[in-house]
């Protein structure tokens, strides 16, 4: 990748404008001359409620990650203080903590509630009624007595009198209720319960202040070409941090066409395009250059590290 391409990899700052141009390739991802006062971040921690069966397989460290603006990935240094008992119903407090090389510390609290398993209705025996069954009385049978004349049933007169109104049957057929019409909003990205509008701002020096924007591509879902979406964290694109491999992402383009993509890769990338977890992995080619009908979403983790997800 040329130095020009390197300069186009972008950074989404926590409190600074989202910038995309003007970054020179860096060989050292730390700034030794400046004093580090920023504590690391701990991500993917949320309160949850589990049944006893679910708690057996619950891993409190699953998907939990930590990143520092100088030290990079500190996930392996996360410490967990917990009294969690997976086989006992109750509410438990989990404390996650981590410190960087400059002794800046961060801690986060998580509440895990364990509840009894739900009762399977198919295993519940039906209740037996204590009320005695009613016994039908024997119906007397009339004897065949030839001396008794047979009763003659009166013949109904179906002739209407002059003043007798004819009965009109009412139409009791149910009238179907009108179906509610859902209004579809065009130019949106939806995932994990969030729907985020986007605009076209290709090559812009910063992401829009709200929503998301296209940095490359058109946002169309049927043009056979990729689109790279950008947005702020903190901000509307913060839920991108919770996306994992397999997460569905639905895009409605400006023409109202809809397509659902599935995430196949989640990356943490420095501003110069190098994979945080593999210094030999330059991600530019597969994020920007690769073709095909696909999308990628980007937001920031720190001032120098970005989260990017790829979906097709």
Q: Could you explain how this protein is built, in words?
A:
With 312 residues, the chain is mainly β. Among the domains are: 40-118, Immunoglobulins (Immunoglobulin-like); 188-311, Sortase, Chain: A (Beta Barrel). The chain is 5% helix and 31% strand. It has helices at residues 3-8, 52-56, 284-289; strands spanning 41-43, 48-51, 65-68, 72-73, 79-82, 90-99, 105-115, 188-191, 194-200, 212-216, 227-230, 248-252, 258-270, 274-275, 278-282, 295-300, 305-311. Strands 8-9-10-11-16-17-13-12 form an eight-stranded mixed β-barrel. β16 (295-300) and β17 form a beta hairpin.
Q: Give the CATH architecture of the domain at 188-311.
A: Beta Barrel
- Flag low-confidence runs: 1-8, 13-27
CATH fold label of the domain at 188-311: Sortase, Chain: A
Rg over CA atoms, rounded to whole Å, is 34 Å
CATH class of the domain at 188-311: Mainly Beta
How far is the first residue's CA from the last residue's CA? 24 Å
CATH superfamily of the domain at 188-311, by name, is Sortase
List SSEs in N-to-C order: HEEHEEEEEEEEEEEEEHEE
Tally of helical runs: 3
> Biggest sheet, strands in spatial order?
8-9-10-11-16-17-13-12
Pfam family, one: Sortase
InterPro entries: Cry22Aa_Ig-like, Ig-like_fold, Sortase, Sortase_dom-sf
Protein name: Pesticidal crystal protein Cry22Aa Ig-like domain-containing protein
GO molecular function: hydrolase activity
């Amino acid at each position: 990748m040329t130095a020009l391409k390197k300069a186009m990899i972008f950074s989404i700052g926590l409190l600074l404008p989202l910038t995309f141009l003007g970054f020179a390739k860096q060989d050292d991802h730390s700034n030794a001359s400046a004093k580090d006062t920023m504590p690391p971040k701990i991500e993917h921690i949320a309160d949850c409620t589990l049944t006893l069966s679910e708690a057996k397989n619950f891993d409190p460290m699953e998907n939990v990650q930590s990143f520092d603006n100088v030290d990079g990935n500190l996930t392996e240094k996360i410490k967990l203080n917990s009294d969690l008992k997976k086989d006992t119903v109750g509410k438990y407090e989990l404390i996650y903590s981590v410190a960087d090389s400059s002794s800046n510390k961060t801690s986060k609290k998580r509440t895990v509630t364990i509840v009894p398993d739900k009762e399977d209705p198919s295993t519940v025996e039906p209740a037996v009624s204590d009320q005695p069954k009613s016994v039908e009385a024997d119906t007397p049978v009339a004897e065949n007595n030839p001396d008794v004349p047979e009763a003659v049933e009166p013949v109904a007169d179906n002739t209407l009198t002059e003043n007798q109104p004819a009965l009109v049957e009412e139409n009791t057929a149910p009238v179907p209720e009108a179906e509610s019409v859902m209004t579809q909003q065009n130019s949106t990205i939806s995932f994990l319960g969030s729907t985020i509008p986007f605009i076209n701002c290709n090559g812009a020096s910063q992401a829009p202040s709200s929503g998301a924007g296209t940095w490359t591509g058109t946002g169309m879902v049927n043009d056979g070409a990729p689109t790279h979406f950008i947005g702020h964290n903190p901000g509307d694109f913060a839920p991108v941090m919770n996306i994992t491999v397999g997460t569905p992402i639905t895009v409605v383009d400006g023409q109202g066409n809809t397509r659902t993509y599935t995430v196949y890769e989640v990356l943490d990338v420095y501003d110069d395009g190098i994979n945080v977890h593999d210094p030999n992995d330059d991600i530019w080619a597969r994020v920007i250059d690769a073709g095909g009908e696909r999308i990628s979403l980007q937001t920031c983790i720190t001032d120098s590290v970005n989260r990017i997800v790829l979906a097709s």
